[in-house]
Amino acid sequence: MMVRYFWMFGTNYMYAVEISIIVLFCFCFDPVGISTLCTVINSSPGELIILPECQNKIECVLNITSGDVRVRSRAGFETERRGSHPYIDFRIFHSNSEIEVSVSARNVRRLLSFQRYLRSSRFFRGITVPNSSNILDDDYNGQAKCMLEKVGNWNFDIFLFDRLTNGNSLVSLTFHLFNLHGLIEHFQLDTMKLRRFLVMVQEDYHSQNPYHNAVHAADVTQAMHCYLKEPKLSESLTPWDVLLSLIAAATHDLDHPGVNQPFLIKTNHYLATLYKNTSVLENHHWRSAVGLLRESGLFAHMSLENRQLMESQIGDLILATDISQQNEYLSMFRSHLDRGDLCLEDANHRHFILQMALKCADICNPCRTWELSKQWSEKVTEEFFHQGDIEKKYHLGVSPLCDRQTETIANIQIGFMTYLVEPLFAEWARFSNTRLSQTMLGHLGLNKASWKGVQREQSGGGEDADPAFEEMDSDILPQEPRLS
Q1: Does the annotation flag 212 for ligand binding?
Q2: Over the stretch 423-460, which tens digit does the pLDDT of each residue have?
Q3: Is the residue at 260 inside a domain?
Q4: Residue 230: CB partners within 8 Å, gap ≥ 6?
Q5: Looking at the 3D structure of the chain, how many domains does it have?
Q6: CATH number of the domain within which 288 lies
Q7: What pTM value is reported for the model?
Q8: Helix or strand (DSSP H, E) at 117
Q9: Which domain does 74 fall in, by range?
């Protein structure tokens, strides 16, 4: 076994470390090849335990970028990426048969995805594409194209769009937005590299997660686009700002394991150790995004300084989505609005507003129409309850909001809206008092009333908000909103 350490010092990083561990089973090693020969069973500072998964392979490569784990695949065209997913890190919770089915299905999807999007027979034979819109014409059917013409509409149905694009909503929508905002031309992006990057991003979301999957990422990206179109922002943002916003939105939950941070901490997950129990998931999403950006070479033509700045600022945006930091960001936002000192000509102020915009986009489900909002509510609750089922099975102590025996969708949603969504969107409306802001607040009020109606039917009158929210750490809960 050969171990090589590369220490890198970059902008806004204390340090980053990249380790390559190469296990040779034969005399030859292809530096370009990638393999699923090994699985990380345990990881702690200075220790990695690796087991081969296949006996007839040649080599095993494990890449750890900035301390985060990446196991790569050689099967098919697309890489097999595994970081935090419970099927790898919590094997005790799943049978071998479940793992085999899941891995097999993912391999098939990766192969089909590559064939569908990269169109290797065209690209690799050297046939050039006159402009990026032709790629859209090749890939989108008529109904999906019609929907993309209204991508800035707040009533955009991401579930329908995902069906029309055969489960590829994130790739299709984000590529379209890059083209719509002129980013491909402005930054001279290689459309093949862009498409490959987006395919890898989409594949690194876990479709078995009811909520934290690629459809959620596409929904957040569409919401972010709506906010970028708001007058205050559209008049002030630079192409660089828009680029960062769309990438951060598309990758903000990358490789989400379908469980929350407390679950990772109490199961001694290696990511919790790596990030010292602080913004564990958000740090992992960010590092995963950086890994894919570097792997795709999408911005390889930029200077090292600009690439480092991009990675750092994308991290700032993604880390802002940590719900445990909600009170801190909301207090800063409220203070700026009270003082009236936000100046969007200032790059730092613009970046802060983009952080707030991404926070809004991330939890905007209750601000959608009832038909869309209700679906999201059911999906996130299903994910909560699945975590609770695992915690019960292995006597881990059920996390708040995760017990299907004591919680209901209505109670959870009313609490979520009351303590988290309403305060944030009330302040956003102070900043950007537009038709969109009023529409979102209107939907929020109607949806909350609808859930209260459901709650009354189920219990004959009960608490307006789930008491589990009140039991959570006070730092998570923002102060009551002040309207002006």
Answers
A1: yes
A2: 999 999 999 999 999 999 999 999 999 999 999 999 87
A3: yes
A4: 432, 434, 436
A5: 2
A6: 1.10.1300.10
A7: 0.74
A8: helix 96-117
A9: 2-109
